[in-house]
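Researcher: Next entry: ubiquitinyl hydrolase 1 (Toxostoma redivivum).
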Amino acid sequence: LRWGCPMGAPWQPAEEKAQLLQNSEYQERMVESTFLYLTLDLPTAPLYKDEKEQLIIPQVPLFSILAKFNGSTEKEYKTYKENFLKRFQLTRLPPYLIFCIKRFTKNNFFVEKNPTIVNFPITNVDLREYLSEEVQAAHAHTTYDLIANIVHDGKPSEGSYRIHVLHHGTGKWYELQDLQVTDILPQMITLSEAYIQIWKRREEDETNQQGA
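Model: Predicted structure:
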């Protein structure tokens, strides 16, 4: 994972920003680091709803929140001393990828949960565009299929977890909660409040057994 950090205040006019970038303190820095999982940020859920919107649950496409890793999308970070921007881009794709969808925000008083539903296909997710250009040629296989999906239901302090698991031999999906195991249709998986997902890279000689 590569991330660039353009220093300085992002709200400054372009001319002032250009002048500041001449100073070493404000010049962009590039850092490469390994990662265990990729954190996907959800858009802020609406604070208030009227009566008609009470039943409307916010939704966002998976590729919208994956844009964080396209090398051009900037994310602002704040500390008590300074503000800065970061851009992220993938430089390598492992056989398995873990996505952690950031649903929980902790402040000084309590933990909040974002209920936004992520719309995602469970097969054929191509991540080639999130690779840096110089390493795209080195990756023959960049398509992933979902093999596990962990869901959080309910409030942050009182909720429960379920997991959807693909049985590779049969291509069927199962839902597990405690000791209970039931069949589940693939299209039902995308309606849940996904929290952690595991994706497997598809090799050229593999056949798709998921049937979705």
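Model: Note for the record: The longest strand covers residues 143-153.
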